[in-house]
Amino acid sequence: MKLQVAMDLLTVEDALELAGKVAEHVDIIELGTPLIKAAGLSAVTAVKNAHPDKIVFADMKTMDAGELEAEIAFKAGADLVSVLGSADDSTIVGAIKAAKAHNKGIVVDLIGVLNKVARAREVRALGAEFVEFHAGLDEQAQPGFDLNGLLQAGEEAKVPFSVAGGVNASTIEAVQQAGADVAVAGSAIYSAADPALAAKELNAAIA
Predict the structure, then answer these.
(1) What pLDDT digit, counting tens, does each position of 98-127 carry?
(2) Is 3 helix (H, G, I), strand (E, B) or coil?
């Protein structure tokens, strides 16, 4: 299982600082949607230039103009780009077309999708690299949120998948046992007193 750090920061400087601290302990560096909206795709280029050996994920959360948005992200240096699972199939297909042209990948994010299992199978059949079973920050803040629902859906779908939303030192083992290909840790790393140590410990838990 790979470890992905989600950098929900707002400046290129902060992203580069965090990436510099944790890169040796993670496989995928994700530039979160707030960062891309605040700083633009130049943030993707900066992080890829600083860490060319890492997989760089641009969390675009594309909902329309799939081919166009994926194209500009790949040109900026992204290796993976996200498209929302609630988007029309044509949007996902367009993004996958751009990915194939650049020999890169599209990740379909199931945030807000009710029937995650069915949609995961559909988008994998369309050509998604993997599918992200994702609970956003707002959903996680709701009373009664439980990561197990995502893990169970991922297991049932039987497609390559990542899990994002509540991944930390206490849940990483369950994520791995569920068969996830990628564990996405955000605040567990970037909000830690020592992000490098937090990333190292998560990596060690996987190993």
Answers:
(1) 999 999 999 999 999 999 999 999 999 999
(2) strand
Which amino acid makes up residue 21?
Answer: K
Structure-block tokens of residue 181:
């290909």
Pick from 191, 166, 206, 177: nearest CA to 25? 206
pTM tops 0.85, yes or no: yes
d(CA 207, CA 129): 23
Cβ neighbours of residue 48 closer than 8 Å, sequence gap 6 or more: 54, 56, 76, 77, 78, 79
- Distance (Å, rounded) from C-alpha 12 to C-alpha 30? 13
Give dist(CA 108, CA 84) in Å, integer: 6
Contact 66, 91 (CB under 8 A): yes
Alpha-carbon gap, residue 204 to 198, rounded angstroms? 10
Other Cβ atoms closer than 10 A to 158: 12
Give residue 122's identity as a one-letter amino acid code.
E
Closest by Cα among 57, 124, 58 to 92: 124
Q: Are 35 and 19 within 8 A, CB to CB?
A: no
